[in-house]
Amino acid sequence: MLKVLKFGGTSVGTLDRIQNVAEIIKKIKDEGHNVIAVVSAMSGETNKLIEYAEHYTKSPVANEMDMLLSSGERVTSALLSIALNAQGYKATSMSGRQAGIVTDNAHTKARIESIDTANMKNALNDGNIIIVAGFQGIAEDGRVSTLGRGGSDLTAVAIAGAIEADVCEIYTDVDGIYTTDPRIEPKAKKLEKISYDEMLELASLGAKVLQNRSVEMAKKLNVNLVSRSSFTPEVEGTLITKEENIMEQPVVSGIALDKNQVRVGMYGVTDRPGIASAIFTALADANINVDMIVQTVGVDGKTDLDFTIPTTDWETCKKVMEKFKSEAENIDYNETICKVSIVGVGMKSHTGVASKAFTALASENINIRIISTSEIKISMIIEEKYAELAVRALHDAYELDK
Ligand code: ASP
Ligand code: MG
Question: Whose C-alpha lies nearest to ligand 1, atom 8?
Answer without folding.
Answer: 150
